[in-house]
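task queued by scheduler; priority normal; single chain, no ligands, no partner chains; default sampling; output format set to structure tokens
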Amino acid sequence: MTDQVDAGSAVTETDVVETAPVEVSSTILGDVSASSVATEVETSPPSDGSVIDDKAASKTPTQAETVDAEPAQDAEEVAESGENASSETEEYTPITFDPFKLPGDAEFKPEEAADFLGVLEKTAKSYGLTKDQAQELGQELITLHASRIGTLIESIQAQAVAGIEQATQRAQDAIAEDHASRVDQWAKDFESDQDYGGKRRETSLNNAKSFIKAFTTPEDAKELSDALNSTGLGNHPAMIRLMARAGEAVNNAAKAIPGSTASSKPDVLTGMYGPSSKTK
């Protein structure tokens, strides 16, 4: 049957390949290859023959500016580091401060103010102050400190004076209260005295008045009364008994002499002690 095939219908192998291509579905590598071809086409050099750097072209404008700015920034850092190095290596000259003025007659002694001078010099070094600036700053600080210390001292002194006055007043009040209590107790003791107080109170006081009247002037009697009242001795049982006994003796003597009274001093004295050598 092969030999009978029509010569006109015979087909060569070449004709079969050209007229019936095999359809192949897309593959992974095919897709990758196709995308790479498209990229090459898009990034191919322009037709006018100019050449563009691939690296520069692939960067965004911001990245390009950053790349251009990096050299300048590096130069600034180098310069700044050089300045810092020079400032660090620069030798610092310690400040010798002049004596500061203190209030009153006080004298500034550097050896007693070492801490203050150290802090002041450290501040001057940190802020780049000159000697005059540091000296002025130190003087202002001392003046301010002295003013506050003076105010504090005045306040302490005022409080001390007030405290002393209050303590003195409290002590005086306590003494007065204690004395008043003692004087009141003397009066109570006299009232309870069976011989001169109680029912005999008025007799004892009248006898005491007779004694004072017989042996004092009115002026002396007033001074004695003031003293007895201010000291409280007018309530003391012993003082009342003394004057009551003396007054009783005066009254008894006056009674023993006809025509004499307690106010008749010579007669009373004669009755108590007998006639004097002048009357004998």
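post-processing summary
- The mean pLDDT is 74.
- The longest helix spans residues 131-191.
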